[in-house]
């Protein structure tokens, strides 16, 4: 059974009175060797946790930037097994950092639910996010995840009803992923005000930490969302930075991007409650 790095990390974030930063990268973009070099560098730059995107042929929840990175990785033959093996290798380099696979249900189902959970636990994965798995259909996977100590992290959107929020929070673990918009991933200039209502509704139903993602791309948004959530998730803006970087500057440019978001000082968490 894996240790609960997610719980420990959010406890540390709370003790530090700051907003956590979770970063998303696509496994195998631009190649697996770069991904393996990049993730420890992002942690060194200030990432509290890393979501590793599992390439998929029909990524319905993702915008153009992450879709393009996923298709590129698929073109290189990157599989779910490769992503699990990547986690196992990363664990040697960053033993205390929460690592989370984010993807879609089809590759997990094809792998075999029990086989996947056992392999993920052996690799010391901490959690999974399955973008297209509704709460009401998640019980078989959730049961197996619980048996091996994996957190199955739910996604909730501003359009989620009160009853769906309550059901998703009932057996949730790790943290709650609150989607800032009713749409796909991608950089946005503003964050809709409805996220305030979603976070307030979620807090009625769970003491778990809340992380806000989809559209976060700069320090100002990080600071604003940190007043209501425990962590923010940055994905498309980082993937785009990797996409735009030259072959020899991917890690350097990505680290510079992360440090720019964090600024010179850690961001105080005013409204987050764990």
Write the SSE topology.
Blueprint: H1 5-16, E1 20-26, H2 32-45, E2 49-53, H3 64-75, H4 80-93, E3 99-103, H5 105-111, H6 113-122, E4 127-130, H7 139-148, E5 151-152, E6 155-156, H8 162-170, E7 176-179, H9 194-203, E8 210-213, H10 219-225, E9 231-234, H11 236-244, H12 250-262
Parallel strand pairs: 1-2, 1-9, 2-3, 3-4, 4-5, 6-7, 7-8, 8-9
Helix pairs in contact: 2-4, 2-12, 6-7, 11-12
**Annotated CATH homologous superfamily:** Aldolase class I
Outline the biggest β-sheet: 9 strands, parallel
CATH architecture designation: Alpha-Beta Barrel
Number of beta-strand segments: 9
Tally of helical segments: 12
The CATH topology corresponds to: TIM Barrel
Instruction: Label the overall shape.
Output: globular
**Averaged pLDDT:** 89
**CATH level-1 class:** Alpha Beta
Which stretches of 5+ consecutive residues score pLDDT under 50?
A: 183-189, 265-274
In what order do the strands lie side by side in the largest sheet? 5-4-3-2-1-9-8-7-6
**SSE series:** HEHEHHEHHEHEEHEHEHEHH
Q: How many separate structural domains?
A: 1
Q: State Rg.
A: 17 Å
> Helix amount, in percent?
40-55%
- Taking the alpha carbons of the first and last residues, their distance comes to 24 Å
Coarse structural class: alpha/beta
Q: Strand fraction band?
A: 5-15%
């Amino acid at each position: 059974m894996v240790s609960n790095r997610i719980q420990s990390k959010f406890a540390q974030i709370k003790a530090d009175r700051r907003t956590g930063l979770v970063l998303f990268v696509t496994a195998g973009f631009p190649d697996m060797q770069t991904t393996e070099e990049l993730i420890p560098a992002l942690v060194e730059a200030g990432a509290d946790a890393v979501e590793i995107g599992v390439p998929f042929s029909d990524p319905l929840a993702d915008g153009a930037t992450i879709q393009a990175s996923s298709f590129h990785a698929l073109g290189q033959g990157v599989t779910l097994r490769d992503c699990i093996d990547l986690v196992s290798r990363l664990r040697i380099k960053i033993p205390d950092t929460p690592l989370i696979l984010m993807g879609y249900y089809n590759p997990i189902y094809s792998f075999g639910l029990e086989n996947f959970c056992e392999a993920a636990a052996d690799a010391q994965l901490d959690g999974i996010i399955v973008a297209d798995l509704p709460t009401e259909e998640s019980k078989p996977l959730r049961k197996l995840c619980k048996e091996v100590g994996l957190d199955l992290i739910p996604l909730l959107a501003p359009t989620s009803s009160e009853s769906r929020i309550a059901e998703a929070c009932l057996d949730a673990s790790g943290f709650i992923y609150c989607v800032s918009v009713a749409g796909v991933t991608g950089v946005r200039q503003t964050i809709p005000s409805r996220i305030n209502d979603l976070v307030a509704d979620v807090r009625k139903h769970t003491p778990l930490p809340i992380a806000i993602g989809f559209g976060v791309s700069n320090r100002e948004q990080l600071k604003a969302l940190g007043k209501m959530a425990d962590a923010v998730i940055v994905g498309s803006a980082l993937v785009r930075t990797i996409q735009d970087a030259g072959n020899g500057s991917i890690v350097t440019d990505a680290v510079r991007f992360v440090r720019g978001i964090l600024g010179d000082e850690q961001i105080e968490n005013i409204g987050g409650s764990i």
